[in-house]
Design a protein that fits this description.
The complex is a heterodimer of chains A (176) and B (278). Chain A contains 5 helices and no strands. With 176 residues, chain A is an all-alpha fold. Chain B has an 8-stranded mixed β-sheet with strand order 2-1-3-4-6-5-8-7, sandwiched between helices. The longest helix of chain B has 15 residues. The model of chain B has no long low-confidence stretch (mean pLDDT 93). Classes of the chains: A mainly alpha (176), B alpha/beta (278). Chains A and B meet through helix 1 of A and helix 7 of B.
Chain lengths: 176, 278
């Protein structure tokens, strides 16, 4: 029985599929929430970025469900794929959102999420006793490493914004 | 098999309404909403058996964002509304949502008496130590040196200590959570809702717009180092001497909840007329 730090206990292939499914499902939901926030706060460029990220995570989620075959990952994830204190690994940090954030910031959130997922699957692979679980965890490690690289490649298109990125000419100011 | 039995259990997403929250991006209240939905799903409560009652303020917008019954009430009066609802419809799960301004200033007196009455409901205060909706005025929990154009040099006033006041007034369950830990918050909410009597849950929920310094809270919070106690004296000492960032259940009392014998569950017109006969 292997329990990665602050994560669900992974003792079978079904557990691993369920955890992976939940990670992608949570990430897609979180990006959709952030897209909604940006829509409300009239930042259309970020709406598009977060929607794209949500779509990408949704594709991964559906792919895991397909690969899981007869395993009911939705029901199984509901029972066991729980992270004790914080969010699941790929959920972007809601507290880091800002109404004037840029695509660079969004991709930083994505990068942090992919790195957390990579760390999670690495810890599962490292501690797996069951060879089947280990083999599959290694595959997820490989996939998450590719996602990390992908975000790095995307970041080349969106350079770090100047320090003045959050300067709002009409800021929310305390009022009496 | 009844309709209720045949219905599949709700997922957290099933408690979301179609209305998009308009909180500032980065606001802790998004996480609190998520914790509500996770707690409701964990409890397996159908949305129509839950009522979320609120007052006024950023945090009080929360009923609109859930699929449960909701009442966005009068400033500071959410507890009074909720108390009336719970005593007449005890079968419902009543959650009251408030903020530090709405709950401790405008509604301060209701807070004391709700704790004292110990009606079986859960009071959640999203504390960001500022009036956010009205643009940054100091609230009862604001630090005395919060220096802004509205409070030059700070208010110099001692902050209100809600957990101790709740304990002294008779709340039967007291916990502190941090919005940035939605799963832990959801688990505490589950416990609070299940605990009989008046449960008070303070959630530290940063206001990123008027209190950007509160982003540091995620580094300051830590699990309470001691197990919850049912001894009010011990609890008072712990709460009075902690650093304000202890997270977890701090007090679990065993007072019997106030549950008045309510009238007839249903009445026809003739019954009602009898009540008014001279």
């Amino acid at each position: 029985m292997n329990k990665p730090i602050n994560g669900p206990r992974i003792s079978s292939v079904a557990d691993l599929y369920a955890a992976a499914y939940q990670i992608e499902a949570d990430a897609a939901e979180r990006y959709e929430l952030l897209a909604g926030q940006m829509e409300t706060h009239n930042n259309p460029e970020l709406v598009a970025v977060f929607r794209d990220l949500a779509r990408a995570e949704g594709i991964h989620r559906d792919e895991i469900k397909r690969l899981a075959g007869d395993i009911d990952v939705v029901a199984h994830a509901r029972r066991m794929a729980k992270w004790n204190r914080g969010d699941s690994p790929e959920e972007a940090d809601l507290g880091a959102a800002h109404y004037m954030m840029t695509p660079w910031h969004a991709l930083q959130l994505a990068l942090a999420g992919e790195k957390r997922a990579l760390a999670f699957f690495t810890s599962v692979a490292d501690s797996a006793k069951d060879p089947e679980v280990k083999k599959m965890a290694d595959e997820f490690v490989e996939e998450e490493a590719e996602h990390v690289n992908l975000v790095h490649r995307l970041l080349r298109k969106f350079p770090r914004p100047p320090r003045s990125w959050s300067n709002d000419p009409d800021p929310p100011i305390p009022q009496e | 098999m009844s309709i209720t039995e045949a219905r599949p259990a709700c997922k957290p997403a099933d408690y979301k309404s179609d209305i998009k929250p308009i909180w500032c991006p980065g606001c802790g209240d998004y996480h609190v909403l998520m914790s509500f939905n996770r707690a409701f799903a964990e409890l397996g409560l159908p949305p129509e058996q839950i009522v979320v009652v609120s007052g006024i303020g950023c945090s009080s917008r929360i009923p609109a964002y859930t699929n449960c019954y909701g009442f966005h009430g009068v400033h500071g009066r959410s507890l009074a509304l909720a108390a009336g609802l719970k005593v007449t419809r005890p079968e419902l799960t009543v959650i009251v949502a408030s903020g530090d301004g709405d709950g401790y200033s405008i509604g301060g007196n209701h807070f004391l008496h709700a704790c004292r009455r110990n009606i079986d409901m859960t009071y959640v205060v999203m504390d960001n130590r500022v009036y956010g909706m009205t643009k940054g005025q100091p609230s009862p929990t604001t630090e005395p040196d919060f220096d802004t154009a509205l409070s030059p040099g700070g208010t110099g006033l001692r902050p209100f200590h809600p957990l101790v006041i709740a304990l002294a007034s008779g709340a039967n369950f007291i916990a502190r959570c941090f919005s940035g830990e939605p799963n832990a918050t959801a688990s505490t909410l589950v416990e609070a809702i299940q605990h009989p009597g008046f449960s008070f849950v303070e959630i530290l929920s940063p206001c990123v717009t008027f209190r950007p310094d509160e982003k540091d809270w995620k580094e300051l919070v830590h699990p309470a180092p001691v197990a919850p106690t049912s001894d009010p004296g011990k609890a008072a000492r712990r709460i009075m001497t902690d650093d304000g960032f202890n997270i977890g259940v701090l007090y679990r009392g065993d007072r019997k909840p106030y549950a008045p014998a309510v009238g007839r569950a249903s009445a026809d017109l003739a019954d009602l007329e009898k009540d008014f006969e001279l």
